[in-house]
Write a sequence for this structure.
């Protein structure tokens, strides 16, 4: 049996800002800054957050084979009671990100408690930090144990406290994108929970970017990249552990941030074009255009009478009339879900669905 090296504490006591890392860092920073700038030009950040987060929720949950469709998720968002558990998982993952984002905005810090709260939402239980030994990481194909994370609760808490300090303290002056890679490695290696460590760790990544102001809102996700390069992802954990050399791992993560920034820029451009299209069409073909109405139509994939009523400060009758016109003119489709009538923005839905394809 191989003797495993003990997990190192942070900051790592070694040179991590190698030439190759710095080269990739420059490219990644540039693309990410571009994404941040483009996102800022959107009239309402929540439009992007809602639209982009759904694919992340679906993909990240998919790493654990919770396979579901956009249509199911959409239904679960409206009426969670009668949808599949899979779709519900995705909706919960989405609310876990939202909750984490609110916490970061309020507190400007990510602590152990924040992380526990996120995992609680992801997994729907309050098991919290592991206190019973026995959790190991296995190769799912061969069932062979590939890694044994710290077992004792006191030990786990010691590592988590150390991670918390590393996340919130920037005296080391290491670029936050490099730190993100190390934080993700460290968090997964501590593996503080019985389950949900992968999903919680992926949410932590985006929240860290927000915390460090590299992006204003949670709209950049790595799950798609990780899934695409899953074998390498798992391999690199082990390789990094065995060699103690973080260069490849950091570069892997930096490339992911670059690639996903590019993809997200593409999605934002499509959404923006569609908003502009719809604006012109609404103006030309109806008499009901207003900025508020347009925003309401893109806020989620669907809208309802009360939303329009509230957003535009009109009576329910007027809201109903507007929605009828929008359906008639082909801007929205309408369907009844449960007792409610829902109005769906198919164009936005289509953009997001297509962005999810590889
Ligand atoms: N060799 C390894 N060393 C450290 N961490 C690993 C290793 N292999 C996998 N991991 C991490 O463990 C996660 C899986 O842990 P867990 O089952 O607790 O999370 P999950 O959210 O339920 O699953 P998933 O990530 O598959 O959706 C992986 O996503 C990965 O981040
Ligand atoms: Mg799991």
């Amino acid at each position: 049996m191989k003797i495993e090296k003990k997990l190192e504490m942070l900051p790592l006591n070694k040179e991590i800002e190698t030439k190759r890392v710095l080269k990739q860092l420059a490219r990644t920073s540039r693309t990410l800054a571009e994404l941040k700038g483009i996102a800022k030009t959107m009239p309402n950040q929540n439009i992007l957050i809602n639209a982009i987060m759904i694919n992340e929720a679906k993909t990240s949950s998919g790493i654990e084979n919770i396979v579901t469709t956009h249509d199911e998720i959409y239904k679960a968002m409206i009426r969670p009671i009668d949808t599949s558990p899979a779709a519900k998982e995705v909706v919960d993952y989405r609310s876990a990100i939202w909750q984490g984002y609110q916490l970061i905005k309020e507190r400007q810090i990510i602590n152990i408690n924040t992380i526990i709260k996120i995992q609680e939402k992801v997994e729907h239980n309050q098991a919290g930090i592991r206190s019973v030994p026995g959790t190991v990481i296995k190769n799912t194909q061969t069932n062979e144990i590939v890694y044994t994370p710290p077992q004792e609760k006191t030990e786990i808490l010691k590592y988590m406290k150390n991670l918390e300090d590393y996340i919130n303290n920037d005296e080391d002056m290491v670029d936050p994108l490099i730190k993100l890679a190390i934080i993700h490695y460290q968090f997964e290696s501590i593996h503080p929970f019985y389950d949900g460590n992968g999903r919680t760790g992926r949410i932590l990544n985006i929240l860290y970017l927000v915390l460090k102001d590299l992006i204003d809102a949670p709209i950049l996700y790595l799950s798609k990249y990780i899934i695409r390069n899953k074998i390498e992802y798992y391999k690199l954990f082990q390789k990094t552990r065995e060699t103690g050399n973080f260069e490849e791992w950091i570069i892997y993560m930096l490339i992911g941030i670059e690639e996903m920034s590019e993809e997200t820029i593409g999605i934002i451009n499509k959404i923006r074009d569609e908003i502009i299209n719809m604006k012109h069409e609404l103006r030309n073909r109806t008499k009901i255009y207003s900025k508020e109405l347009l925003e309401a139509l893109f806020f989620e994939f669907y809208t309802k009478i009360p939303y329009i009523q509230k957003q535009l400060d009109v009576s329910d009758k007027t809201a109903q009339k507007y929605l009828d016109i929008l359906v008639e003119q082909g801007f929205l489709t309408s369907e009844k879900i449960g007792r409610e009538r829902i109005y769906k923005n198919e164009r936005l839905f289509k953009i997001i669905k297509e962005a999810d394809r590889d």
Notes: The chain has a mean pLDDT of 93. The pocket of adenosine-5'-triphosphate (ligand 1) is lined by residues 63-64, 137, 146-147, 188-189, 195-199, 201, 234, 237-238 (CB under 6 Å). Residues 155 and 280 are 60 Å apart (CA to CA).
